[in-house]
Specification:
Helix content: 10-25%
Radius of gyration: 13 Å
Largest sheet: 4 strands, antiparallel
Order of helices and strands: EHEEHE
Shape: globular
Structural class: alpha+beta
Strand content: 35-45%
Number of helices: 2
Length: 79
């Protein structure tokens, strides 16, 4: 089983970035918002254009508005 969920990322934007700019960056890169985790800053997103997680992270982190982008990791509780 993969250590992260395929086609999903967590993307954190720097403070003060407008909602319109966030939506433009994500849409322009074939990414859909699944949920907003931290108001206006942290988003759970899905890659909708078939690119790999690694490729999407490389593209997103080239934007100065993005603080980080990372895979949506799976965590398992050990019993």
């Amino acid at each position: 089983m993969p250590r992260f969920i395929p086609h999903e990322l967590l993307v954190k934007f720097k403070s003060g970035i407008s909602r319109e700019r966030i939506e433009f960056i994500l849409k322009h890169n074939g990414i859909d918002i699944l949920s907003e985790i931290q108001l206006g800053r942290l988003y759970h997103v899905r890659i909708s254009d078939g690119r790999s997680v690694e490729s999407a992270i490389t593209r997103l982190t080239s934007y100065q508005e993005i603080e980080y982008a990372e895979p949506n990791h799976r965590y398992e509780i050990q019993k």
